[in-house]
Amino acid sequence: MKHVLIGAALLLAAPCGATPPPATVLAAALAAHDAGRFAEARHGFRALADQGSAIGETMLGVIYAHGQGVTPDPATAVSYWFRAANRGYAPAQLALARALAAGTGVAPDATEAWLWASLAARGGDEPMASAARTLATELRRGMAPGDARSLDRRLASWRPWASAGE
């Protein structure tokens, strides 16, 4: 409730016709999501995603993956996670790795899943990074040595896309 009041106060403080700052939109969208107002949350996250926000893209992926106010659509979830993962956002990288490993919304691809899990293990909070390291370790066990060397080179040279300020 506190997040809702803060978000509402920030939105009301914006001049008429002015676009609220991304931080304000994000706070309001997260509060709406937490309160189960998924259409409102989706609207805010889409506005952020349209500006290149990795958090907005990731949360849209969550909404579509879990069918929160929409018909579940794993392929759409993966497309949002792919965008955010390429911006270097670790939670999206882990979500994409899990989808690739399981073949949810996308054809299964253990080598790509390993790459994204390895990237996710570099960032984010410790529980998330630990989960990413565990997944990467499991996926690496099934790789041929040549595949592993090739992926190590890709991992070393990976660079993120540009991302909106968050």
Task: Outline the structure in words.
With 166 residues, this protein is mainly alpha-helical. It has two domains: 1-87; 88-160, no CATH class. Helices cover 71% and strands 0% of the residues. It contains nine helices and no strands. Helix 3 (38-50) runs antiparallel to helix 4 and helix 7 crosses helix 9. It starts with a helix and ends in a 9-residue tail after the last helix.
Describe the sheet with the most strands: none
Low-confidence stretches: 1-15
Helicity level = over 70%
Q: Proportion of β residues?
A: under 5%
- What sort of overall outline do the alpha carbons produce when their principal axes are compared? elongated
Number of domains: 2
Q: Based on helices, strands and strand pairing, what is the structural class?
A: mainly alpha
Estimated radius of gyration? 17 Å
Q: Element order, helices and strands? A: HHHHHHHHH
Instruction: Give the overall pLDDT as a whole number.
Output: 88
Total strands: 0
Tally of helical runs: 9
**Could you give the distance between the termini?**
22 Å
Blueprint (SSEs and pairs):
Blueprint: H1 2-13, H2 22-34, H3 38-50, H4 54-66, H5 74-86, H6 90-102, H7 110-121, H8 126-141, H9 145-157
What are its keywords?
166 residues, mainly alpha, 9 helices
Summarize the structure.
The protein is mostly helical. Helices cover about 70% and strands about 0% of the residues.
